[in-house]
Amino acid sequence: MFLEPRLNKTTHKKGWIEVICGSMFSGKTEELIRRINRAKIANLKVEIYKPAIDTRYHESEVVSHNSNSVSSIPVSSSLNILLMHQDADVIGIDEAQFFDKEITFVCEELAAKGIRVIVAGLDMDYLGKPFGPMPSLMAIAEYVTKVNAICMECGDLATHSFRKTTNENQVMLGEKDTYEARCRHCFNIGMNNKKG
Ligand code: ZN
Fold it and tell me: Is 0.70 surpassed by the pTM of this model?
């Protein structure tokens, strides 16, 4: 389990970047919320942002699949985070795979200002390919945590998000009716079956 290198405010504030990545149903958002809640206990000021595209549950909340929610601010562009952030000690960014590529610059700017940045997102899309800015974010982060789901076919650890429909948009929001967490093996079987 990830333990914070530092939670108390020190006179010399140093920022850093953490990435939490994994497939759908892997608990990424739950882990983000866990870290945010611990920062709150330490009396740190927190802010959470998410892309405006992700409106599955509620406009102004980061909501994980178990409804353990923390309020968040939807933004249409990653640069808005630089413009909007106040005096936060910790900034959480959820669903980062949907942000534009400037998100890496934004995270580096925030960290340079002494802010701890915690970024959560899907590392792979429904084809099993690296998703949007996530590879770059993982490269520039001090700490990367890859969380796994459980394969809904065989029960092994799952790394892939298998889309059960034939829709071919990279962005297709949905939950259990649209996606399944799968291990690489069961993901490949499913993709081959789709090809027919
Ligand atoms: Zn499997």
Answer: yes
